[in-house]
Amino acid sequence: MNPLALMQIKPLLEGFQERHPKFLQFFHYAGQNVEEDSLIEISVTSADGQKAITNIRLTQEDLELAEKLRELIK
Question: Structure pTM?
């Protein structure tokens, strides 16, 4: 991964965290409690009320990817 791109993303992530502190706290908490075969469900409701929902069942490879991403962000 391009180190310059990571440096550009850092202030964006910090701004996101300032605007939405509970969102990242939730992921931190949930990330400590997931294991293989855990189910993640995501729902998005648009401003006009339309809803999109999806889910994924985590594999060991997904957990390994999440760990690598956490290491990059730190």
Answer: 0.66
Residue 8 phi/psi, 5-degree rounding, is -75, -30
- Among 34, 31, 29, which Cα is nearest to 57's? 34
Per DSSP (E only), the strands in the chain are 39-45, 51-57
Question: CA 64, 1, 26 angle in degrees (round to 5)?
Answer: 45
Torsion of CA 36, 63, 12, 4, to 10 degrees: -170
pLDDT digits (tens, 9 = 90+) for 32-69: 889 999 999 999 999 999 999 999 999 999 999 988 88
Give the Cα separation of 54 and 40 in Å (integer).
8
